[in-house]
Amino acid sequence: MNAPAAGSATGATPVTVLPDDLRYRDLVQGWNARFVGRPEAVRLPDTTEQVVAAVQSAVDQEKRIAVRSGGHCFEDFVANASVQVVIDMSLLTNIYWDPEMKAVAIEAGVQLGTVNRTLFKRWGVALPGGTCPSVGVGGHISGGGWGPLSRLFGSVVDHLHAVETVVVDDSGTARAVVATRDPQDPAHDLWWAHTGAGGGNFGVVTRYWFRSPDTEGDEPAELLPTPPARLLVAQLLWPWAMLDEASFSRLLRNHGEWHERNSGPDSPYAGMYSVIGATPRANGGVVIMSLQMDASLPDAEGLLSAYLAAVREGTDAEPVVLERRELPWLHTTTWPGVSDRADHTKHAKFKSAYLRARLSDEQIGAVYRSLTTPDYANMTAGIMLASYGGAVNTVDPSATAMPQRDSIMRLIFATEWDSPEEDDKHLTWVREFYRDVFAATGGVPAPGGTGDGCHINYADADVANPEWNTSGVPWHSLYFKDNYPRLQAAKARWDPRDVFRHSLSVRLPDQEAGERTEEGAG
């Protein structure tokens, strides 16, 4: 199960960058400029052996560790003042067929764009991963990543066959463990913990192996999903000037009700992914809808037209059709209508919610009020309501660590800005926006009703803060629901010294859920 030789370091010693190195400033800041770390060292391993050495060195010296793959963490889990050693996985970038495992291996530093290109060009297959090409797989996979193909093929973790993780035992010894999907595997609980609990909990993931369930053979082309050969894509735009509260509300209601009717795994629309988003009205904001749909479906054009008619039903606002055309699949992974090409040098705050039904009229009213307030103008802020469900919902909630298996949409709140002097302004806006939308359930999407908690890959430390979460539902229930005790058991077995931790990491069974507030409140 050894990867092909690669990398620039030699032996068991990873590249080490210290504060006086010109590379240091680039390596202590990730995607979110709100957080800049001050570690004593950044280690850049390019083999599993080097990861073990880096972890062992830090443990022996009693140094606090954090791990970075693509650098897209929305909170300060890595760029935190208490972190002394950062292990940067970005040099582990191999993708290869592993004949012993009979699965495709992907190392933890590979970015999603590379995954898309490599899997498709080598074998004509794909994983249902996310829309940002620069996201690293190390965190994306372990958090239960999703994307435009998820309604067809489920979450990425639904195709995860095995994971290699560097863990630290009770004696302080670091070692690499391979855990598989096989229930008889003695390390099966470590595999399960990496199917949706997020990174920074149990150890350092060095590589994943992918093979879809119930597949066999030696041909990668037969072991992973085949994406649609071509897709219809479209973008429609409504300037705020043509929308009043009634027409805006009708658009969101129609969009939600359509997903209530069309999110089953056998729906003819399982091959469609649609996002309706809106930026604040002040200073030229817009409402925009982007979508892609399997063009090989019988009467695909007719299905697409029927969907667009359903979303616009009952409104007088005629959208501007920015484009409507056909693209081959790989091109859609960088098509601006779906692919995230945002400026990744800004301060940012994101929040998320799983939705089991459309937003209520009261919630839509709260959305309208926050987006139309005259004193908030920011073209890089707003919401997205994205298609979900389909094949995702065919998996039992306990089969993977991510329990949200009956949702139909994802709701994402976002704001980005340039100046740290404006932190309070933008954070207040998005926090109050989120709280108001979920006012009926204590300011968060408490499980059991329309909402079904949050997605750990959109980490939001506010849900652990009683100022913003008055629901009585603890943060870990929002993310992991009934799976949390099992995650704690895995934590106790594989990270008994709590070496890998952050403000929203899985607690050891004897720890209080509210501990570690000194390690960052977001």
- Rg is 22 Å
**Poorly predicted runs:** 4-9, 514-522
Portion in helices: 10-25%
Q: How far is it from the N-terminal to the C-terminal residue, by CA?
A: 39 Å
Output the strand order for the largest sheet: 13-10-12-11-15-16-14
- Name the beta content range: 15-25%
Indicate the structural class.
alpha+beta
Q: What is the 3D form?
A: globular
State the order of secondary-structure elements, H for helix, E for strand: EHEHEEEEHHHEEHEEHEEHEHEHEEHHH
Q: How many DSSP-defined strands?
A: 16
Instruction: Enumerate how many helices there are, as a single number.
Output: 13
Major sheet description: 7 strands, antiparallel
Indicate the mean pLDDT. 94
Write a brief caption for the model:
The chain is of the alpha+beta class. The protein has helices at 24-27, 48-60, 112-123, 137-142, 150-153, 188-193, 245-261, 300-312, 329-332, 361-372, 423-437, 475-480, 484-494; strands at residues 15-17, 41-44, 65-68, 85-88, 95-98, 103-107, 160-168, 174-180, 204-210, 230-239, 272-278, 286-294, 320-328, 347-355, 381-387, 409-417. The chain has 13 helices and 16 strands.
What does this structure look like?
With about 525 residues, this protein is α+β, with helices and mostly antiparallel strands. Helix content is about 25%, strand content about 20%. It has 13 helices and 16 strands. The protein has a 7-stranded antiparallel β-sheet with strand order 13-10-12-11-15-16-14. The protein has a 5-stranded antiparallel β-sheet with strand order 5-6-9-7-8. Helix 7 (about 245-260) packs across helix 10 and helix 10 runs antiparallel to helix 11. The longest helix has 17 residues, at about 245-260. It is globular. The model is unreliable at about 5-10 and about 515-520 (pLDDT under 50).
